[in-house]
Amino acid sequence: MLPRSLSPIWLVLSAIFLSACAALPERLALEEPEQEACLDIFLAADSLIEERARHDAGAHRPADFPWLRSTRFLASFAGELHQDRERWEAWLSRMSQEDLLARRHELANARGLPAESDEIEAEIAALGECAENLNHAIHYRADLQEALIRQSQVPDDYRTAQRWLGIYPITRLFVLSGVNRLHNNQAEALASEAQPTPGASWTHYLAEDAPGESKTTGAGTLTPPSAFERDPLGIPNASIEELSGWFQRHAPIWRMEEAVSGDRIGKPELADDKHARVDTERPVEYRYVSFARFNEEVVIQLNYMVWLPERPRDGFFDLLGGHLDGAIWRVNLDSDGEVIAGESLHICGCYYMIFPGEDVRERPSQPGGEPIFVGPQLPKPAAGERIRLTRETGSHYLVGVSAAGETADVRLELRDPNELRSLSGAGRHESLYGRNGLVDGSERRERWLLWTMGVPSPGAMRQPGRHAIAFAGRRHFDQPDLLEHSLEARDADVPR
Question: What is the DSSP string of 65-110?
Answer without folding.
Answer: -TT--B-HHHHTTGGG-TT-HHHHHHHHHHHHHHHHHHHHHHHHHH
